[in-house]
Amino acid sequence: MGRKVSTRELGLILGARLLKTEDLHYGYWSDGLAVNLANLPKAQDAYCEFLLGKIPKDVKSILDVGCGTGHVAHLLVQRGYQVECVSPAPLLTQAARERLGTTVTIYETTMEALTPPHSYDLLLFSESFQYIPPEQSLPKANRMLNTGGYVLLCAFFSWEDSGPSALR
After folding, report:
1. Among 12, 20, 45, 131, which is most exposed with the fewest C-beta within 10 angstroms?
2. Other C-beta atoms within 10 Å of 1: how many?
3. Which residues are CB-neighbours of 117 under 8 A, at least 6 positions away?
4. 9 exposed, middle or buried (CB, 10 Å; 0-12, 13-18, 19+)?
5. Residue 72: what are its φ and ψ, rounded to 5°?
6. Of 149, 147, 166, the residue nearest 40 (C-alpha)
């Protein structure tokens, strides 16, 4: 019997095969960018630029929690950050290792099970926070940070009566 494939892994397979993309997020749809499939790559690039633009100037070391295919980690390395990744999904870990090679340590485990050998200036949750119970992730994140460190959380959240959305 085959192995069960996670929804994130299924997203990678569908994205890579059907949409010709390796990003697992919906993108950042700014005003003026029509919400359609043809604009998805532009929206995904805008998301990455938006995310990277939120990193405080004093950050040097980053743990990318739920690194997906390693695309954001690759961009971080290109900008001079010391990056390590956490990836609990085997297919995604394989894709990240192919992209990043030996430039980045990738822990193939969950954040809950991770015991890194050191702490970080920033923990990045890019579309991964919703997969980790907050009562576990936030206290652990605090323990994994250097003094004065940061948590950067970028994800979709839903609240009742939150108004119209391009994703509905």
Report:
1. 20
2. 3
3. none
4. buried
5. -65, -40
6. 166
Whether residue 115 contacts residue 86, with contact meaning beta carbons closer than 8 Å, is answered with no
Tell how many helices (H) and how many strands (E) occur in the chain.
5, 5
Three-state secondary-structure class, residue 82: strand
pLDDT value at residue 7 = 66
Residues in the chain: 168
* Burial category of 7 from C-beta neighbours within 10 Å (exposed 0-12, middle 13-18, buried 19 and up): exposed
Q: How far apart are CA 167 and CA 26, in angstroms?
A: 9
Cβ–Cβ < 8 Å for 105, 27: no
pLDDT at res. 167: 43
Q: Which residues of 19-37 are buried (b: 16+ CB within 10 A; e: fewer)?
A: eebbbbbebbbeeeeeeee
Q: Which two tokens stand for residue 70?
A: 């390693």
Q: What is the pLDDT along the chain (168 residues), one digit of tens a residue?
A: 555 656 666 666 666 566 666 666 666 567 787 777 776 777 777 777 888 988 999 999 999 998 888 889 999 999 999 999 999 888 888 888 999 999 899 999 988 888 999 999 999 987 665 667 777 777 778 889 999 999 887 766 555 555 554 443
Q: Identify the three-state secondary structure at position 107.
A: strand
